[in-house]
Amino acid sequence: xxxxxxxxxxxxxxxxxxxxxxxxxxxxxxxxxxxxxxxxxxxxxxxxxxxxxxxxxxxxxxxxxxxxxxxxxxxxxxxxxxxxxxxxxxxxxxxxxxxxxxxxxxxxxxxxxxxxxxxxxxxxxxxxxxxxxxxxxxxxxxxxxxxxxxxxxxxxxxxxxxxxxxxxxxxxxxxxxxxxxxxxxxxxxxxxxxxxxxxxxxxxxxxxxxxxxxxxxxxxxxxxxxxxxxxxxxxxxxxxxxxxxxxxxxxxxxxxxxx
Length: 259
Known about the structure:
The chain is α/β, with parallel strands linked by helices. Helices cover 47% and strands 14% of the residues.
């Protein structure tokens, strides 16, 4: 299927690896010029080089922290008029909400609430004036089902979801389409790394522990960054113009719900 977005310009946040990279690769495969972002210069440049080997799309590196105003300014300088924005950032650390200070709450809300809102604010009106825009926010399955050990993430993701619910319906008339992608268990470094510590705590061999985790997923496996990216690319396509303000859960069927 031709997604109809060749020649468009995209900012993909936190895209040097993991789910963000999956999104950047899928968009580049469709001929979208992409701005690749990350904090580690070596990882960013390696990703740019890898995509540039097989894609004719322009791939621009930006080494910056998207959770800071300076970092967001660097992204917008590299791509002042994006047609596509994929918001993404690492989640805040786990913890018992009783132990979290006010400072930790305020700091924890920045990456997954304040930062994406500021990027949406900086780009959405330009998209509307050009009569095309696609914004995909990578949030979390915690929007559907709270993860008790991640109170900061639960709060931030829910806050962004609430804001998007209203805004998406205001700008849909201008062909600016905003949706959220909610990942569950995926085979990325960020998700697989902590499993080693959890396996040690449980006193279970790592491979056995991973099997225990995948067995709890109806699909009996973890997702891949490639299939996540392909879904993101579809939401950015011309064919997704009637999908407005939705929370699309990708968790292999883990969240059991009739509707």
